Amino acid sequence: MRVVSGDSHVVEPHDLWTSKLAVTKYADRAPTMAPGSAGYEFRIDGLAPFPVGLAGAAGRRSDDLSNEGELREGGWNTAARLDDMDLDGIAAEVLYPSVGMSVVQAPDHDYQLACIRAYNDWLVEFCALAPDRLVGLALTPVYDVDVAVAEIDRTHRLGLRGALIPAVPTEGHYAEPRFDAMWAALSDRNVPVSFHVLTGGRAYDPTLGSGIRLIGLMSPVHHIQNTLGLLMFGKVFDRHPALKVVSAEHDGGWVAHYGYRMEQMYDRHHNWLGQGIALDRSPTEYLRSRVWYTFQK
Asked: pTM of the entire structure?
């Protein structure tokens, strides 16, 4: 049996940004790895530190997860990565970032773009040694649609085969007409767009003030449901019939009930979309034909 991992992660090397940004005006602000109070962490200007050890958890039991200990070299070394894939019986992987998912939240947009481009350039190099087995997804900035389109085009020409965008844009929402140029750029190039957990969002406390972090782990399921509803009822799917969307690491057991609920609400309350406004398909048709789902074991 040929096994393909639809949601694997690199662990960015400690010198990715310090080397890539060394000759830029952001050299002294480049994300860097440093020892923290509980193991090593990446420090990104304007953001909370990112605990590297928790991201590089491959090969560890749940009871052993912490921010301390050695990381597997396969996180950033292509040859070691291929050895790990052979060990696990994995034929190919779709690759997401780890630290990079925080980079898209940097409030300084020019700095954010420099960090994003540095990551994407490194990922191109990482995948180039085994393009038949390593499928890289480009980080994509969404604070400016023209900037997003330019990076989608650049990374597609460099060989990356998907795009990862934040859960919500910096301002507004993804069904606004201004984002149509981005959806068209993805559709025209046959580039699937992924929404992954932990890729940012506006200030919101998913613990409802309790501070119980485990509650927050459930909130991404709610976020992706709202995003898919927006793409349907905001008619993004209808305006861009070739758009392919990936729900990454939100699991999939909720999809059947979500589809049932969407059908029920649309059948009964479709006039809430506005008089005379209708979808081209039923909600479950979009969920079946336009969205792919990854899950964890």
From this structure: 0.92
